[in-house]
Amino acid sequence: MHNLLNFLAKYSYWFLFLVLEAISFVLLFQFNSYQGSVWFTSANAVSGKVYEQSAKVKSYFQLETINEELTKENLYLAHRLQLLNAQKEDSIADSLAHASALLQHLSPYKLIPAKIVHASLNKRDNLLTIDKGARDGVKRDMGVVCGTGVVGIVYLTSNHYSVVIPVLSSQSSISCVIENRGYFGYLHWTGGDICRAFVDDIPRHAHFRLYENVVTSGYSSVFPAGIPVGKILHVYNSPDQMSYRLQLQLSTNFGTLRDVFVVDNSAFAEQIDILRAAEDSMRVKNGGEKQ
Fold first, then answer.
1. Are residues 28 and 113 in the same domain?
2. I want to staple 216 with a disulfide (CB 3.0 to 4.6 A). Which of 89, 227, 252, 258 is the partner?
């Protein structure tokens, strides 16, 4: 204690100087606006640095908690990624299964694989261009399909390319039926949504349900019977109230369509020509007998 008192007595002038200096600084910055603003700015800068360092220290000591939260979040994201990959694989598997089933259904016919090199989807009368033409066996009025369903009908051919009128055209009219029901009508597209089209002329006595499949009828030489067209979404009355109009969700996704097949149905067309010739011959014969 004696040593402490000697120390204070020895350096009392210095302690008095520091106290007076502190008082003078307080008076200077408190009663002078300029010096006060300088102090305030300096104090803010200093306090900012202090807060910054304090935050770093707190963050350091909170690293364990943060790591636990990140681990939980990573596990959640990994689980979500696994689910999304599984859904994607299921979707791809479904698409491959549909494509395999359709190709098996078309196995009796010659299929000419082709790729779409140009497509318009934003017009009322859209056109597709494929990279196969007359030298590849493509002819006018051949049907074009993809792995999920109907695409359109060949309109023009050159040696190496062909122009296709797709379902997404007001000029397209494809005969189709409600699967396992037998009621048939004609597929039309009225513009707008590239995922939806209409089937007209379904008779009023027809019985069917929403989400049933609509497929090609096979009543023409263009498409074999049973090629998917779409699913029934809505049912409307025709303008003359004499039939139904069905709105379909098209089975073909034209927005991502790249690979197609041209269906060489010439053998079936030849059979139809023979049947028509036979029918004409029978009519002529029956007419002669009546005379």
1. no
2. 227
